[in-house]
Design a protein that fits this description.
Layout lengths: L2 E8 L6 H18 L2 H9 L4 E6 L2 H13 L4 E5 L11 E10 H8 L3 E2 L1
Parallel strand pairs: 1-2
Antiparallel strand pairs: 1-4, 2-5, 3-4
C-alpha cells in the first residue's frame, strides 16, 4: 500500500515561509506520534511522502478535520502559541495520516497545492 501524509494550511493567514515551514513540521510530527507504529514504520520505508495543500480559512480547516476523523484517520490540528506572527490560539494547519494515499486523495483531491 502506498502511504502519505496530507497537511492542510490556512491560506487566509498568509504565513511567511519560515512560519509556514514550522507549522507544517509541528503538524507532521504530532500526527506521526499519534499514529500506529507499524503504519509509521511502513511509511518511513516508503520515503515518508507528504503533500501540503491549502484551505481558505479556519472553518474549512475544521471541516476537513472532522471529515478525516469521521473516516477513522489520525489527525493533528496545530494551534499556535502566538509568540510571532499570529494571535495566540490561532489554528494554523492540520496533518492527516500517514494513511493510504488513495484514501487521502479521495478526501482532499479537490484542494490546491500550497
Amino acid at each position: 500500500m502506498r502511504l502519505k501524509q496530507t497537511i492542510l494550511v490556512r491560506a487566509d493567514l498568509k504565513l511567511p515561509k519560515g512560519k509556514l515551514g514550522a507549522q507544517t513540521a509541528h503538524a507532521s510530527v504530532e500526527a506521526t506520534l499519534r499514529s500506529d507504529k507499524d503504519v509509521v514504520k511502513e511509511w518511513r520505508g516508503e520515503g515518508m511522502a507528504k503533500i501540503v495543500l491549502k484551505v481558505a480559512d479556519e472553518k474549512e480547516l475544521l471541516k476537513y478535520n472532522q471529515i478525516a476523523k469521521d473516516s477513522g484517520l489520525v489527525t493533528a490540528v496545530i494551534t499556535d502559541a502566538g509568540h510571532t506572527v499570529v494571535a495566540p490560539g490561532t489554528r494554523t494547519c492540520l496533518a492527516v495520516g500517514p494513511a493510504s494515499a488513495d484514501e487521502l486523495d479521495a478526501l482532499f483531491g479537490e484542494l490546491k497545492l500550497m
